Amino acid sequence: MLQGRIFTPGGWINGSIAFDQRITSITEGPSGEGLTIIPGFVDLHVHGASGVDIMEGGEAGAVVARSHARHGTTALLGTTLTAKEDSIRHALQGLAGVIAHRPQHGARMLGVHLEGPFLNRRRLGAQPPDVVTGSRALVESYHAIAPIRVLTMAPEVTGHLELIPHLKDMGIRVQIGHSAGSYDDGVAAMRAGAAGFTHLFNGMSGMSHKEPGMVDVAMAHAEYAEIIPDLLHVHPGAMRAALRAIPRLYGVTDATSATGMPDGEYALGTQRVFKCMGCVRLATGSLAGSVLTMDQALRNFVGLGMDLAEASQRLSLFPADYLGESQRGRLALGAWADIVVLDKSLHPVAVFVEGEPVPLS
User: Fold this and answer.
1) Which residues form the Amidohydrolase-related domain (predicted)?
2) Is 199 annotated as a binding residue?
3) Which phi and psi angles does 330 have, rounded to 5°?
4) Is 166 labelled a binding residue?
C-alpha cells in the first residue's frame, strides 16, 4: 500500500492505493508524506539504453527494459531500425523472448515498433540506407517472429498506400514517418487507415502555407502523434503549437544505447553515434535519437507550463490508449499495478511494474 496524492482517471485524490500485480483498491484518506503517485510511463519508441542497442538482439531487450524501468517506464515497445532483412529478423528474435517473459525488474515489453525499412531514402535522418518497399508477405513474416504493434512507413513510396489497410487488419498501428510526402499523400494515408505520426516534425516534410507537408497533415487531422520532448528535437514553440492542434499528442524518448551512459561513441544499428552535451549525433552533426528518459520528459513538459496531470496523461494514458492497452497507463481498480512515486522535484523515488518494485540504483 502507498499513501500520497494519487492521480486517478477521475482526477487527483489524497489517500492510499493498494495492489498486488493489479490495483486492488484506491481509497481517499490520509496522504502520508506528501508523495505524488502517478501511472507508470508507456514509451512507444525505444532503441536502447545502458550501452545496448535493440538491434543487437539476444539479451539487449532485457537490458533496455530494466534500464528504462528505473526511470519510471513500466511498458514500452522495442524499436528497430532500417537494416538488412537478416539483421531485422535477428533483432526480432531477441525481442520475442522479452515480450513473452518480462525480465525481473524490467518494464513490460508490449511488442515491436518497426521503424523502417519502409522509409523514403530522402528522409532517412539517422536511419541506415537499407530501405526496401514494404510488402504484406514481408511484414507477416516479421510479425510471426515478434508481434509488431506500430510500424513506421513513408506512404508516398509506391505500393505503401495499398499496404496500409492490410496492416490495420493485422492490428498494427501504421505511423507516417521518414517521409517526403505531400499533404495529399498524408491525407490519403490517413483515409487508408494510418493512425499516427513518428517523432512529429523530425524526419518528415514540414509545414508550409503553400506546399503543406506531413506536419500539416498531423496538425489538421491527427488524433494521435508521438513527439520527442527533449527540447532539442523540437523547439518549445513548435511543441506548443502541436499540443494545441493534436488532442492526444504523446511523448516518446527515441532513446538510444547512449542513454544513461557517459559522453562517447555508441551504436545505433549499424550507425556510429556520438553522445555529447546531452544529445546524440551522427558524425555529420545530425541528431540521431536521444538520451531522454520518460521521467525527464515529464519534467520537461511541466517546465513548459503543462499541468502535471496533463503531462502524466501524455506519457502514460494516451500512448496506452493508442495501443488499445486499457489496463495500463492509468491508476484504476483492476488495472496493472504500474506505478511511479515522485518526490517534490518530480524525480522517481519508487517504481512498480505489475506490482514488482524496481531497484532504482
Assistant:
1) 36-356
2) yes
3) -155, 150
4) no
Residue found by looking up cell 489517500 in the block = 15
Backbone angles phi, psi at 67, to 5 degrees: -65, -45
CA distance 251 to 128: 24
DSSP strand E in the chain: where? 2-8, 11-19, 23-28, 36-39, 41-46, 48-49, 52-53, 73-79, 108-115, 148-153, 173-176, 196-197, 224-227, 248-251, 264-268, 271-276, 279-281, 339-342, 348-353, 356-357
In this structure, what C-alpha cell is assigned to residue 113?
A: 515498433
- With contact defined as beta carbons under 8 Å apart, do 126 and 273 qualify? yes
Residues 306 and 107: their CA atoms lie apart, in Å, by 26
Catalytic residue among 130, 254, 295, 321: 254
**Structure-block grid coordinates of residue 287:** 541528431
Asked if 154 contacts 123 with a C-beta cutoff of 8 angstroms, the reply is: yes
Residue written as cell 515497445?
77
From CA 321, how far away is CA 332, in angstroms rounded? 14
Q: For residue 258, count other CB atoms closer than 10 A to its CB.
A: 29
The Cα 98–Cα 244 span in angstroms is: 37
Q: pTM for the complete prediction?
A: 0.97
Domains of the chain are 41-327 (3.20.20.140)
DSSP 233-266: SS-HHHHHHHHHH-TEEEE---B-TTTTS-SEEE
The values of phi and psi at residue 54, to 5°, are -55, -35
Is 184 annotated as catalytic?
no
- 203-222 per-position pLDDT tens digit: 999 999 999 999 999 999 99
156 labeled binding residue: no
Mean pLDDT of successive 10-residue stretches along the chain, which has 361 residues: 96 96 95 88 98 96 98 98 97 98 97 96 92 97 98 98 98 98 98 98 94 97 98 96 98 97 93 92 92 98 97 98 98 98 97 98 83
Summarised one tens digit per residue, pLDDT across range 142-170 is 999 999 999 999 999 999 999 999 999 99
